[in-house]
Amino acid sequence: MARASAYAGGMTAALWTSFATITGVWLITVISPGPNFLATVYTTASQSRRLGLLVSLGIAAGTTVWATASLLGLSLLFETATWLYQAVKLAGALFLIYLGLRTILSARRLTVSGSAPVAVVSGVQAFRRGLVVDLSNPKAAVFFASLFAVTVPPGAPVWFQATVVAAVVAMAGGWYALVACIVDLDPIARLLRRTRRAFTFAAGAIFVALGLRLATDR
Question: Least C-beta-crowded within 10 Å: which of 58, 78, 84, 206?
C-alpha cells in the first residue's frame, strides 16, 4: 500500500527515469535491422506502401502481445516450461524459412529485368505477415521481461505499466511505418525496381538465414 501511495501523485522522478530508460533502450533495439525490418522493406518494395504500412501495424500488434505478456510473467512460464519456449521458437523459425523459400521462388519467376508480376498480397495477409514475423521470436518476451525487471520500479501502478506498453508499441509501429514510407520514396523505389530480382533473392536468403539462426540459437 505504501508503494502504491508513493505514485498517487502521478509521474514521479523514479517513474520518469524508468520511462526514459525503457524508451531509450527500446529505440536502439527497434531500429536495429532484423526480420521486422526486412518484412517491411520487402513488402513495400514488392507490393506497395499501403501494404508495407499494414505490415508495420502487424508488427505493432505483435509487440503489444510480447510486451503485455512479459509484464504478466510470460518469461517465467517460458523458464518453467522450456518445451513451450522451444516449440514457439521452432514454429517461428519454420515460418521465417517458409517465407524465405517462397520469396526465393517468386524471385525465380522474375525476368532478369524484374518485369514479371508478383503475386498480390491482400491487406489481411500483409498485416498477418507483420504479426507472425514479430511473434516468431520468443526471445522478445525474455528481452522485455529483463528490461522491465531492471527498469520498472517495484509497485509501479498499472497505469504506468500500460503507458510503457503503449510507448513501446507506438515506437515499433511508428518506426516501421517510417521505413515503409522511406522505401516508397521515388529514388529508393526506382533502385529497388531496377534490382528487383536480385533484391528478392537476397530478401529470401536472409529470411531463411534468420530462420536457421533462430532455430539453432540457444
Answer: 84
| Overall domain count for the chain | 1
Is 66 a member of any domain?
yes
> What is the model's pLDDT at position 84?
84
| Residues 88 and 81: beta-carbon distance below 8 Å | no
Could you please report the per-residue DSSP string of 98-165?
HHHHHHHHHHHTS-TT--S--PPPPHHHHHHHHHHHHHT-THHHHHHHHHHHHHSPTT--HHHHHHHH
Residue 114 has pLDDT above 50, yes or no: no
Q: CA-to-CA distance for 185 and 178, rounded, in angstroms?
A: 11
Distance, CA of 80 to CA of 32 (rounded, Å): 30
What DSSP character marks residue 31?
A: T
Domain contains 127: yes
Cell numbers describing residue 65: 502481445
d(CA 168, CA 208): 27
Q: Is residue 4 part of a domain?
A: no
Domain that holds residue 127: 12-216
Handedness of CA 63, 66, 72, 73 (dihedral sign): negative
Question: Which of 8-22, 49-63, 86-100, 159-173 bottoms out in mean pLDDT, i.e. has the lowest?
Answer: 8-22
pLDDT of 118 > 60? The answer is: no
